[in-house]
Write a structure and sequence with these properties.
The chain is mostly helical. The chain is built from 19 helices and 4 strands. 69% of the residues lie in helices and 3% in strands. Strands 1-2 form a two-stranded antiparallel ribbon. Strands 3-4 form a two-stranded antiparallel ribbon. The longest helix is centred in the N-terminal third of the chain and has 25 residues, at 110-134. The mean pLDDT is 86.
């Protein structure tokens, strides 16, 4: 029963909604579900005296160390209330790692969990593609107004106001304004993160399945198309990087598919003349382009904060360091996950986070070159790591939860290998 509920949770993740216990507090329902799952597993472990439910593996130790450093950053916080809200956010989602590890430890659940994640993402991708296409039939203003009305349900009253006040839903390419694909995510950037990280697993399930092969092919196609229509340049670079990173670890048959995919994406992004997608991608390398200039300024600001405060300025306090009068929800970030963590939590915390990424890569590589699902894990983490050079998903209920689930899969893969060796 628990396994089936977790599968529903994985499929439901892209469509989660928010509750509002107060006017200023948005409580994503996923956060409550994670805590309930965690409490249920702890009770199960106590009642059945299962001492191996929470294993002391390297990944778990690193995750706990990261949370401890986040807590220590309170000592350097200018606004404790902001730090407390961000810390509660992390504490409500990080237990999903231990929940997922519990279910991944049963090897027969692996494909089911990954399939559930892909299935849910495919539904979100379909919604996003319909949303993108609708602007050409009913008008961009009508589609924008419709999704703006839904925002308060999926994001919460307070957060939705911030999203609508600082919108990233539109993009201008060659003088034409398009509405980007994002479904019910707060912005196209987090949407593209989610799609991109699951594309490798959808392809792996498609190539290795004896049944539902056509369904996984459709899922892969939907995820790729939706990711491209998000017009997220960081995602484009990350997708190509993910294809190339997986090449040395793939079988010859899979390597041919990866080379084809990387070539196709490169042609799409580089070669098609006057395409809004290729022009959007080309602007990534223009230092004079507005958002690129702004990002470089953000990075310089973050580096200056890190040099002056190597122990961090306190979780949730980055925006205050930039503007002391800014409101809590104003989206001010370094637009680089590693710089954001170093600035708020300190240099030691970003070192721990990089160690988590390295260990995830290492576990997937050790799990075996011949297994497509582990190769997909290498590609997925590459997409996350590269995309994080220009975005910050640490406080995204969608992306952080997915990242922790995949990290749990990487940790469980070592148990699979030990079992196989025995």
């Amino acid at each position: 029963m628990f396994s089936r509920i977790f599968l529903i949770f994985c499929a439901f993740l892209p469509f989660q909604f928010a509750l509002n216990p107060t006017e200023e507090i948005d409580l994503a329902v996923v956060r409550m579900i994670v805590l309930l799952f965690f409490a249920a597993i702890v009770c199960l472990a106590i009642l059945e005296r299962k001492t191996d439910v929470f294993r002391k593996d390297k990944m778990s130790i690193l995750i706990v160390a990261f949370l401890l450093l986040a807590a220590i950053s309170f000592f350097f916080s200018q606004d404790i209330s902001r730090s407390l809200r961000k810390m509660l956010f992390l504490l409500s989602l990080f237990p999903v790692y231990f929940v997922a590890l519990f279910f991944f430890s049963q090897k027969e659940n692996t494909r089911k969990i990954l399939a559930a994640l892909v299935f849910g993402a495919s539904l979100a991708a379909f919604v996003a593609i319909v949303q993108f296409a609708a602007q050409f039939f009913v008008g961009i203003d009508s589609v924008y107004a419709f999704f703006a009305k839904q925002a308060s349900f999926f994001l919460g009253n307070s957060f939705s106001k911030t999203v609508l006040a600082h919108p990233s839903w539109l993009v201008n390419s060659s003088g034409i304004t398009y509405m980007r694909a994002f479904a019910f995510f707060p912005d196209p950037h987090m949407f593209s993160y989610y799609m991109g990280m699951l594309i490798p697993f959808s392809i792996a399930l498609w190539t290795t399945s004896s049944s539902y092969k056509k369904l996984f092919f459709v899922s892969s196609s939907l995820l790729i198309i939706a990711d491209i229509l998000s017009f997220t340049r960081g995602s484009y670079v990350a997708l190509i990087s993910g294809c190339l990173m997986a090449l040395p670890f793939a079988t010859k048959h899979a390597a041919k598919r990866l080379i084809f995919a990387a070539t196709f994406l490169s042609i799409l992004f580089f070669a098609i003349p006057h395409s809004p997608i290729s022009q959007r991608f080309a602007s990534s390398f223009n230092p004079d382009e507005g958002s690129n200039t702004e990002r470089m300024n953000n990075w310089q600001q973050a580096l200056s904060i890190i040099v002056a405060n190597p122990m961090g300025i306190g979780i949730g306090n980055y925006s205050l360091a930039i503007n002391p009068n800014v409101a809590y929800r104003t989206p001010i970030y370094a637009h680089n996950l590693y710089l954001d963590i170093a600035a708020e939590l300190g240099v030691a915390a970003v070192a721990i986070f990089i160690a988590i990424l390295y260990l995830t890569f290492s576990n997937f590589i050790k799990a075996g070159k011949e297994n497509a699902l582990f190769v997909a894990g290498i590609s997925s983490m590459t997409i996350f790591a590269v995309h994080s050079l220009v975005e910050t998903p640490l406080y995204s209920v969608h992306v952080l939860t997915l990242f922790l689930i995949i990290a749990a899969f990487a940790a469980a893969s070592q148990k699979y290998e030990k079992t196989a060796d025995n």
